[in-house]
Design goal:
By secondary structure, the protein is α+β, with helices and mostly antiparallel strands. The protein contains six helices and eleven strands. The chain has a single domain, classed as Roll (Pnp Oxidase, Chain A). The strands form two sheets. Strands 1, 2, 3, 6, 7, 10 and 11 form a seven-stranded antiparallel beta sheet that branches. A four-stranded antiparallel beta sheet has the order 4-5-9-8, with helices on both faces. Bound molecules: flavin-adenine dinucleotide.
Length: about 240
């Protein structure tokens, strides 16, 4: 079940695009992308993902921080958490990321929409046991939230690492869905005196505060100034 020219499971590693499967084929082909660069860019810009899994027949969705290295998503959490007691067994999960880009307002309520970029990944979670990969996964998560922070902050100690599970999810079966542009209008509505158009949505950082923070004061680092200026990072 693949689109023309698309790689498929069994073809070997996909090159420019991800596999299109019955689970990830977007019905609206005009809004779909299976392009690796497109999917990666959305995952990298999204501040968080939602992770869905089935537990004893009940579906659950949990918001989580994430990091990406090549075609692997990394999640972290406490071994005692129900989520990680489940994820460590290697279940199939579904991960989604959404960027809301604009409110799209047509003259009719029917044609209202939003501009967005979103990704859905389906894959089998794998508990990361290798020490180097675990550290790399944690680094990817920290750097995803605040680029430059990993090298500045103290690294996790042995006990801290033992208190942390890292799970990898392959990005192989993945789709992006994107809407851009103005509202659709019924020709018969064009004469209606109702405002129609798009209101862009931006994410902004607030004023940094050290109120209540203990310990010695440190200079505000350049990588945080760059993050606030919109140069890099999840909120850029
Ligand atoms: C933006 C964001 C990022 C997060 N990032 C991480 C992360 O990287 N790693 C991590 O381990 N956790 C993260 N969390 C917390 C995460 O969503 C879960 O709460 C946590 O993983 C525990 O999951 P659990 O299934 O073990 O919780 P449990 O407490 O065992 O879940 C029991 C019930 O509590 C409720 N519940 C659990 N979590 C939430 C929630 N977030 N919101 C509302 N109700 C909830 C649900 O009804 C759930 O069925 C994040 C939360 C937010 C909001």
């Amino acid at each position: 079940m693949t689109g023309a020219g698309r790689p498929a499971p069994g073809d070997g590693a996909p090159a420019a695009g991800y596999w299109v499967t019955p689970r990830t084929e977007v019905r609206r082909a005009d809004r779909a992308s299976y392009d690796r660069a497109v999917v990666r860019a959305i995952l990298d810009e999204a501040p968080i993902v939602h992770v869905a899994f089935a537990l004893d027949g009940t579906p659950f969705v949990v918001p989580m921080l994430h990091g990406r290295i090549d075609d692997r998503l990394y999640l972290h959490g406490l071994p005692a958490a129900r989520l990680f007691r489940h994820l460590r067994a290697g279940p199939e999960v579904c991960v989604e990321a959404t960027l809301l880009d604009g409110l799209v307002m047509a003259r009719s309520s029917f044609h209202h929409s939003v501009n967005f970029r979103s990704v859905v990944v389906v894959g089998r979670a794998r508990l990361v046991r290798d020490h180097a990969e675990k550290l790399a996964g944690l680094r990817a998560i920290v750097e995803h939230v605040v680029p430059g922070r990993w090298d500045d902050a103290r690294r996790p100690s042995g006990p801290e690492l033992r208190q942390t599970h890292v799970v990898a999810i392959p990005i192989e079966e993945a789709s992006a869905k994107i809407r851009t542009g103005p509202p659709a209008e019924d020709p018969g509505d064009l004469g209606l005196p109702v405002w129609s158009g798009v209101i862009p949505i931006r994410t902004a950082f607030g004023e940094p505060s050290t109120e209540g923070a203990a310990g010695v004061a440190a200079a505000f680092p350049a990588y945080l100034a760059e993050l606030l200026s919109g140069g890099r990072g999840a909120g850029a």
